[in-house]
# Entry
Amino acid sequence: MHPRVAIVPALNEEPSVGQSVAALLQCSAADCVIVVDDGSRDRTSARAKEAGATVIRMAKTVGKGAAVATGIARARKMAPALLVLADADLGPSAAEMASVVSAVVEGRGDMAVAGFPQPISSGGFGLVVGLAKRGVRQLAGLDLKWPLSGQRALLAEPFYEVFAGDGAHMPRLDRGFGLEVGLAIDWARAGYTIVEVPTNMTHRETGKDLAGICHRARQFVEVLEALTMRRR
# Structure
C-alpha cells in the first residue's frame, strides 16, 4: 500500500522529468510516482526511472487526459489514500506540492489545487483561462483563480466513486486539456470541496509564437468540449 501516489503525464520531458520525480519523492508529497510516458521520442522514460518512478510507456501519444487516466488506473491497485497529479516540467519546484498535499491531509478540502505566481512573460492571451473560469462558475458555482492548474491532490476513494470507468477500471476523464475543468466540475457537483493553495511553483511557459498559439488553440477547444458536455 502506498498512501500517496503521484501521477505524472510526460511527453518529451527529458530535461525536467527526473527533477520533478525526485522533488515529489523527497518532499514526501508522494510515496510512489507513476510517470506515464505519452509516446515520447526522447529519454523521458529513462530519466523518470533513474529518479525512482514507476514508468508506463504508451505505444503512441494519447493526450494528457488519457495518460492521466492510465496512471490513475494503475495507482488504484496500490490502494492509495491520496492521489497527486503533477506535470513533468515542474523540475525542483515540484517540492511545492507538499503544501498542496497538506491542505487535503489537514482537512481543508477534499481536493487541493496549486496556484502559480504571475508569469514572468505574458505568453498567454487569457482566453482559455477566462473560458475555464466562467464555465466552472456557471456549471459548479465555484470561483477558481487557477482552474487550469494540473497540480492537484485529492482523496482517492471519492475520486474512484465519482469517476468510475468501464470494466477495465479506466477513470472517466476528459481528453487533453479539458481534464482539469471537467475534474473540478464533476467533483463539486458530487458534493466534494476544492481549496486553492498559492505556491511558488514554476513550469515552462508558452509564448506568442506559432507553437504557443497552436497550444492555446488546442487548450481552448478541449476546455470548450469539456464544458459543452456538462451543459447537456
Summary: The CA atoms of residues 139 and 231 lie 7 Å apart. The helical segments are 17-26, 44-50, 64-76, 97-105, 127-140, 156-162, 179-189, 210-231. The longest strand covers residues 4-10. The beta strands are 4-10, 32-37, 54-57, 82-85, 111-115, 152-155, 194-198.
